[in-house]
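[job 4471] stage=fold_predict status=RUNNING
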Amino acid sequence: MEPRKPYPTDLSDREWALIQHLVPAAKPGGRPEQYPKRDILDAIFSILRSGCAWRLLPHDLPPWQIVYQYCWRWRKDGTWQVMHDLLRGDVRGAAGKQRQPSAAVIDSQSVKTTETGGSAALICTNRSRGAHGISSSRPEGCSSPSWSRPPVCKTAMGPCTCWTSCGTGVPACA
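[job 4471] inference complete, writing structure tokens
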């Protein structure tokens, strides 16, 4: 049987040489491997790059069930993490940096505020101090159903937009 035509996501010989030693070997005493690990990795990279469903894997690659099983097994046993860490260290070393990063940056905009999502995270309600609920950076009493309109402060003097000063000592919500 002639070899299949390569996909753009297939590992090159050089890339395979870099990670071949990181791929777990078959366990002794088991059934012999029917598909080479390189073909399994090529199938996983094809899925990742194309975003297609497992069942839509092209027929000239190993069956999706086998590819999925290896992908899941390597995730559970830490193979992917080890590959990532070692390859990241190699890239950093080639760039003249230390193998391990010395600092990390966390963007506060990417931190989850609610598990329900949607506009619930944007609405604050008047609550007692002991109440539990949605965490928000807006002052209490401010509510905003969407970002397209300025929020409204509910004060003793009546409603006003939070883009202006209400005279209540509550800073603007923006």
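[job 4471] summary: The chain has two domains: 13-94, 118-125+134-174.
[job 4471] exit 0
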